[in-house]
Write a structure and sequence with these properties.
This protein is α+β, with helices and mostly antiparallel strands and 78 residues long. It has 2 helices and 2 strands, in the order E-E-H-H. The protein starts with a strand and ends with a helix.
Length: 78
């Protein structure tokens, strides 16, 4: 089994990726694991369908937060 750790931008472990073949083996062995998985259908929509849903002021605020985060990330990684 080859698990992969998922880390945030600070190197802190935040999750684990389990390859699907390994997951299927685990679920066969430990059937209770099936209860951990959300099997609800996720509704997918196109980004174009979201146009106009966020007020312009909020959109601009989120864009500024995104740009600030990107600048901080670039500074840490340069």
């Amino acid at each position: 089994m080859r698990l992969q750790l998922i880390q945030d931008g600070f190197g802190k472990n935040t999750g684990v990726f389990v390859p699907i073949n390994d997951w299927n083996i685990l679920v066969q062995k430990y059937e209770d694991l099936r209860d951990l998985v959300n099997t609800e259908t996720i509704i997918k929509i196109k980004l174009s369908e979201l146009e106009g849903k966020l007020p312009k002021v909020e959109g601009e605020k989120k864009l500024q937060q995104l740009l600030q985060s990107r600048n901080e990330w670039e500074e840490r990684n340069s």
